[in-house]
């Protein structure tokens, strides 16, 4: 599981009216920590949800090669293909995070627009 934090914003007049987005750490160790890691998702916060600023368990360290953390290995064709799959997964995770942040921004703008005229 990746290191993350949750941005929670109170948006309504009632106690539990909030929107939240999970923001995952986008460093090499986290992007290449595990294949199929959960993509970040923006969703309404429910009572009992993860508290703001709470940390997930630390991910495994990337493989070491030549004294440098290197999740990418291109010494053989098989290793190169595996590395390309890891890179594609990392790009997909970043793209998903950007989409979720954009959706969160759209929700905030929509809420702002509806409260300006209320």
Automatic annotation (TrEMBL):
Positions of region (Disordered): 37-71
Transmembrane parts of this sequence: none
Family matches, as InterPro entries: Flag_bb_rod_N
Keyword Cell inner membrane: no
Superkingdom of source: Bacteria
UniProt keyword annotations, A-Z: Cell projection, Cilium, Flagellum
Flagellar basal body rod protein N-terminal domain: residues covered: 7-38
Low complexity: compositionally biased ranges: 37-67
Keyword Nucleus: no
UniProt-listed Gene3D superfamilies: f41 fragment of flagellin, N-terminal domain
Protein's UniProt name: Flagellin
Species this protein is from: Borreliella burgdorferi (Lyme disease spirochete)
């Amino acid at each position: 599981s990746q290191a993350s934090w949750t941005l929670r914003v109170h948006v309504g007049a009632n106690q539990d009216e909030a929107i939240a987005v999970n923001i995952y750490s986008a460093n090499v160790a986290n992007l290449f920590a595990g294949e199929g890691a959960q993509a970040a998702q923006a969703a309404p916060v429910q009572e009992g949800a993860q508290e703001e600023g709470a940390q997930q368990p630390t991910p495994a360290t990337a493989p070491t090669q030549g004294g440098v953390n290197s999740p990418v290995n291109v010494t053989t064709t098989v290793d190169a293909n595996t590395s390309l799959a890891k890179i594609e997964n990392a790009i997909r995770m970043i793209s998903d995070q950007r989409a979720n942040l954009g959706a969160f921004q759209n929700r905030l703008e929509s809420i702002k627009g509806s409260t300006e005229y209320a």
